[in-house]
Amino acid sequence: MKTGLVLEGGAMRGLFTAGILDVMLDEGIKVDGMIGVSAGAAFGCSFKSGQRGRTLRYNLKYARDKRYCSLYSLLTTGDLYGADFCYHKLPEELDIFDNDAFANNPTEFYLVCTDVTTGKPVYHKCETTDYQTMEWFRASASMPLVSRIVKVDGYQLLDGGVADAIPLAYFESIGYEKNLVILTQPAEYRKKESKLLPLIRRALGKYPHLVAVMEQRHNLYNQSAEWIQHREAEQDPNLMVLRPETALPMSRIEKNPEKLQQAYDMGRETALKHLDAIKVFLG
């Protein structure tokens, strides 16, 4: 039975996920495959490359750097999270990503993007972390309104969380029967309709299928969350879910190092609390 990790996004809330993944690295816990959405992909890749602590380290160091995430970056590049800095300069020069370890690790790695022309999710398997693949990572985390559309391999893409925020059903459909799902919101969280829909309709009106799915994004998310909770209540033996017990004390684009550290520590505490169960579940 193939085991998988399913990693929700949430921008800087992904530090919670990073804390869990680092405990798993400490304990030598492995899976057959993993799929990440947005920050789940951008931060989760360090699990496949075996770089414990890397996600926390570079976020603490660069979160307040205007090249990383800032209004300056948005106005000068069109991306709130600087494309060249975050996806090329940082992993290639400043906090080097271990490309060889990623490529040589047999754990399969998938990420999710949203096709702006169809409004449907696109699932991409990442076997290396070359320039083209890093553009897929960038696309997966490119939030509408504050990011340019990413053109890669014939697609026009934005944030995977728009079309499939918790891609458990997809991962099961390709053979990952037993999955550990890591969420970044507490169990009681339900997404509300975006207050930015009027702006979204104006700014992205040339992509009607994208606008349509964004109008339903809260419903799609809530249906996924409720489906997962139903399976938990039924004690599905092929599903384990880790999530914060309370809302993380931070915003999506948090820059305060203390709050980033706190989210990471909450992830570690959650993993350690359930460590024996994780080991039993994943065999």
Structural key phrases:
alpha/beta
Gyration radius, to the nearest Å? Answer: 18 Å
- The ordered H/E elements are EHEHHHHHEEHEEHEHHHEHH
Q: Report on the biggest sheet.
A: 8 strands, mixed
In the predicted model, the low-confidence regions spanning at least 5 consecutive residues are: none
- Total helical segments: 13
- Given helix and strand content, the structural type is alpha/beta
Q: Looking at the structure, what is the overall shape?
A: globular
Describe this structure in words.
By secondary structure, the chain is an alpha/beta fold. Strands 1, 2, 3, 4, 5, 6, 7 and 8 form an 8-stranded mixed sheet that branches. Strand 5 and strand 6 form a beta hairpin. Helix 3 runs antiparallel to helix 12. The longest helix is centred in the last third of the chain and has 17 residues. The model has no long low-confidence stretch (mean pLDDT 97).
Question: What's the SSE blueprint?
Answer:
Layout: E1 3-7, H1 14-26, E2 33-37, H2 39-48, H3 54-62, H4 71-77, H5 83-94, H6 99-104, E3 108-115, E4 121-125, H7 131-140, E5 150-152, E6 155-159, H8 168-173, E7 178-182, H9 197-203, H10 208-215, H11 217-233, E8 239-242, H12 257-273, H13 275-282
Parallel strand pairs: 1-2, 1-7, 2-3, 7-8
Antiparallel strand pairs: 3-4, 3-6, 5-6
Helix pairs in contact: 1-2, 1-12, 3-12, 5-7
